[in-house]
Amino acid sequence: MANILMVVSAADSLTMKDGSQHPTGFWAEELVVAHRTLQQAGHNVDFATPGGVKPTVDKISLQPDMVGSEERAEDFRTYLEMIDVDLFAPMVLADVDMSGYDAVVLPGGHGPMADLFQDKDLGRILVEADGASKIIAPFCHGPAGLLSATADDGAFAFAGRKLTVFTNSEEMGGGTGENTPWFVETALRGKGANVETGPDWASHVVREGNLISGQNPQSSEDVAKEVIKALAE
Questions:
Q1: CA 226 to CA 218: how far, in whole Å?
Q2: Which GO terms describe its cellular component (predicted)?
Q3: How far is the C-alpha of 47 from the C-alpha of 93, rounded, in Å?
Q4: Mean pLDDT of 215-229
Q5: CA dihedral of residues 71, 10, 130, 136 (deg, nearest 10)
Q6: Distance CA 139, CA 213 (A)
Q7: Beta bridge partners of 21
Q8: Which residues are paired to 46 by β-bridges?
Q9: CATH tag, 3-232
Q10: Residue 177: which pLDDT band, with cuts at 50, 70 and 90?
């Protein structure tokens, strides 16, 4: 059994390009599917957020028309209720000792664009994890968290690395559109990441060594399965 740290945004809103506040948080499908898949494989998963704040689920991610059916929406709601005791009191990100973990998983939702992208504690954790070749697995908007990681020389810690992320096309077509304050794909490319994208709204996972990334909510299960595979190697 491996110990996995799941870092979740503590944000409940995102400041948009026009200055308005857009309600946000974590995306239900991503957290639920990844958490359930990892736990069913026998691994321990601990939650951590900035400040130890209980994370907020993006209400849009529980709408049947957004997730495909009322049955799926109800499944996500039920699972979140089941793990609410863990979500209610996550670890404080600043207090995390990465030596006790084998992997870091970062689900998305627009929340990471509001806090994790510049969180120094997350940056420290990611640099330590990468230096120890531990699994780092962000997906959808989760790769925004990678932007927090700065190497000793001040450079982006994941420059030159192959990864994927929620694409600009997906953001425009089914995300926050023209009012998006910034695009994670663009930001990662600008920092020197080698971003590889697949078709919109289809599962797409990219692995380079210990870095495993997924493009969108549809990639949640495949990212978790790739993490399980990597932990077994």
A1: 14
A2: cytoplasm
A3: 9
A4: 98
A5: 0
A6: 5
A7: 15
A8: 5
A9: 3.40.50.880
A10: very high
- pLDDT at site 105: 99
**How far is residue 95 CA from its own chain's centroid?**
19
Rounded-to-integer distance, Cα 130 and Cα 152, Å: 13
What pLDDT does 163 receive? 99
Bridging pattern class, strands 205-208 and 211-214? antiparallel
Give me the half-sphere count of Cα atoms (radius 13 Å) on the Cβ side of residue 50. Answer: 21
Is 8 in contact with 107 (CB distance < 8 Å)? yes
Phi and psi based region of residue 172 (left: phi greater than 0; alpha: psi -120 to 50; beta: remaining)? alpha
pLDDT at res. 160: 98
Annotated domain spans of the chain: 3-232
The residue with tokens 């609410």 is: 84
Structure tokens at 22: 């857009």
Q: Structure tokens of 218?
A: 């549809």
Q: What is the pLDDT of residue 225?
A: 98
Q: pLDDT tens, 93-133? A: 999 999 999 999 999 999 999 999 999 999 999 999 999 99
Per-residue model confidence (pLDDT) at position 148: 98
Contacts of 149 by beta carbon, 8 Å cutoff, 6+ apart = 122, 123, 126, 127, 130, 156, 157, 158
Phi and psi at 208, nearest 5°, equal -130, 105
